[in-house]
Structures are given as C-alpha cells and as structure tokens.
Amino acid sequence: MPPGVPAGRPVEAYWDGHRVAGEEWGEGPAIYLVHGWGGQRAHLAVFVKPLVEAGYRVIAFDLPSHNESDPGALAPGRTTATECADAITAMIEAHGPAHAVIAHSLGANATALAAADGAPVGRLVFLAPMGDFPLHLDWFAARHNFGRRIRAGLHRRLEKRIAMPLYETNMTRVGRRASYPPLLLIHDPDDPDSPSWQGAQFMTTQGLGRLAHYRILRHRPAINAGLEFIGHHATQS
C-alpha cells in the first residue's frame, strides 16, 4: 500500500462459488477501485486516502486469479475479461451500488462489461483502458510471427472461451450497451491504444514514456483529475 494507507477492513464476495478478496476504508457512498491485468488491489490505493477524506467508502479488491482472489473456471493464474466482469458485479452486489468506479487497463474493460450487463455504476474513471481487443490480438500475432491461419484459430478459441464475439468487447460497443454512464478517460500518447466513448471527458497525460501504461497510476495530474471528476458529482447529488 502507498504511504499513509493503513490496512483496510476485509471484504469479500462470491460468484459461482469463487471468492473475491478485498479491503474497504471509510464510510459513505461506495467507490470501487479495479486494478489491471497482472495487478492487485494495492496498485490503485493511491486514491484511498483522498477519497476517504472526501467522505466516501472505498473498496479495492483483487480480480480472479490475482493476488488473494480465487481463480474462476480456469487454472490458477488464468482468467478472462468476462470472469473479471462477473467478479466486479459480485462485489458491487455484495457491498452496494457504485457511486463511482476507478479502473485501470483491462480492469476498465471488465468494468465496462459489468456495467453493460446491469451492474449499478455512477461515474467511471478509466485509466489507460484497452479500446479494440482484436487489435491487441493482431499485435500479439505480429510479435510472435503468427500467420493468418494460426491467428484465426486463436481468435476462434478466444471467442469460445469467453462465449461472445471479440468485437463485442470493444469499448465503444460495450459503452453503447451500458448506455454510456459519465466517464473520464485518461490516456497517454505514448500508450498506443485509446478507446472512444460517447460523451466522455478525455484527458491526455504527457511525458510518461514507454511505461506510460503503468506510470499513469502514479501521475499526480491524472489522479487529481479523477478525484475532481468524482468529487464534482458528489457536490451535485
């Protein structure tokens, strides 16, 4: 945890018998922190102290197969965006509607999927989400020198695994299904994939370099923008 963030009260939720582990701090409307692929709940804990001071209850948790949470249908260390969406929905159902959700990378995409399936979210702050998942598959194939046959086979296997077409995970399509809740999208030009979302506020960071996708989590202007976006809503409710 960042300096000044004590251990929180343990919280948990279950989906299909799988445990999601987390912590909570403070009292008030619930704000959920959702980390990215390969991360853990501490990675967004820089938001805990200022949000608690602003009168919110902050809940951070680990996605399936990450840190203290159980795996889902796959082996330990493996999960899918759709399982992560189920875990997010389970946590919100167990601990109350989300006044806001702050999410990073694939955690943002999973949050959007959860919202599209009816999870009650208020405002959304997405840090460096993935815009077009099939594009990442193209990059993966190019990096490993896959031909079209292998790339097409991998595409089919992935769609079978998540039980939906890959293009249905694209942020723009998911946002349409979720009725576009208010969103602050924070992205860096050095991070090549940027999604679009109707009516979203868009902020770009500068100079974070090759590791912009991760450094954005410690970028003070981005953090302050997220806090202001959520805080402004609180004063209007």
TrEMBL record:
<dbReference type="InterPro" id="IPR000073">
    <property type="entry name" value="AB_hydrolase_1"/>
</dbReference>
<dbReference type="GO" id="GO:0003824">
    <property type="term" value="F:catalytic activity"/>
</dbReference>
<feature type="domain" description="AB hydrolase-1">
    <location>
        <begin position="32"/>
        <end position="192"/>
    </location>
</feature>
<dbReference type="InterPro" id="IPR029058">
    <property type="entry name" value="AB_hydrolase_fold"/>
</dbReference>
<protein>
    <submittedName>
        <fullName>Fermentation-respiration switch protein FrsA, has esterase activity, DUF1100 family</fullName>
    </submittedName>
</protein>
<dbReference type="Pfam" id="PF12697">
    <property type="entry name" value="Abhydrolase_6"/>
</dbReference>
<dbReference type="InterPro" id="IPR050228">
    <property type="entry name" value="Carboxylesterase_BioH"/>
</dbReference>
